[in-house]
Specification:
By secondary structure, this protein is mainly beta. 10% of the residues lie in helices and 34% in strands.
Length: 221
């Protein structure tokens, strides 16, 4: 499952996704508990929020609990406490990105190589997610999110990721024409119709060695 990705810069949020970017900046590469922009419904339109990657931020976990909530499995999304309420209330979001990373194991190898998954035309895209708000001590609200994953055992590209014998999973890429329809879903039955694998012929995967930590930018330029 995806544990990090490349969020879009502010200019793409404004021009491609037609949402006003958050004032704050964010890292060029996002990992658990990093903040990044998400897109949510806003009346008849949409807006972006800066949210923490992982439905339950580490600081919100009890001292004796340690688990990750970056990926919400579609099969249990309506059952697990971390996601159930947001799912039943259809608190759906789009997670805009340029690409996400998965481990690829060559045949016969026990060592993985980091691959980036993106669109063949190199356009930005958005994946289906859940979001929620948190009340802070100063009276303000903060936000967090999780990406939704589905089985990809039969997907020609995503079934090449991760080790042999391990279930293959994929993020749900939402077609651009359906962004607002996804955000405006008011029933989980309708939302589930979006949880499908994206056509493999529209995707690409290539080796992308990990680089040193990137700076916080999110800049318009």
């Amino acid at each position: 499952m995806c544990v990090n990705y490349l969020p879009v810069p502010k200019r793409i949020l404004l021009d491609y996704f037609q949402t006003l970017p958050p004032i704050e900046d964010w890292h060029d590469e996002v990992w658990e508990d990093y903040t990044a922009p998400i897109i949510v419904a806003d009346g008849p339109g949409r807006k972006s929020l800066l949210a923490s990657y992982g439905m339950v931020p580490k600081k919100r976990l009890p001292p004796d609990k340690r688990f990750t909530t970056m990926n919400a499995r579609a099969e249990t999304i309506g059952q697990l406490p971390s996601y159930k309420r947001a799912w039943l209330q259809c608190q759906l979001c789009l997670v805009p990105m340029m690409g996400f990373f998965e481990p690829y194991y060559a045949v016969g190898s026990d060592k993985s190589e980091r691959y980036m998954i993106s669109l063949v035309n190199n356009d930005p895209f958005a994946v289906a997610g859940l979001w929620r708000s948190w009340s802070e001590e100063d009276g303000s609200l903060s936000y967090s999110f999780s990406q939704i994953t589905i089985n990809a055992d039969d997907h020609p590209l995503m079934n090449q990721m991760h080790k042999t014998g391990v279930e293959k999973r994929s993020l749900v890429i939402v077609p651009k024409a359906y962004y607002d329809t996804w955000l405006d879903c008011h029933s989980t039955e309708l939302a589930r119709t979006f949880l499908q694998n994206y056509p493999a012929e529209l995707m690409q995967a290539f080796p992308t060695p990990r680089k040193p930590p990137l700076p916080v930018t999110g800049s318009l330029f």
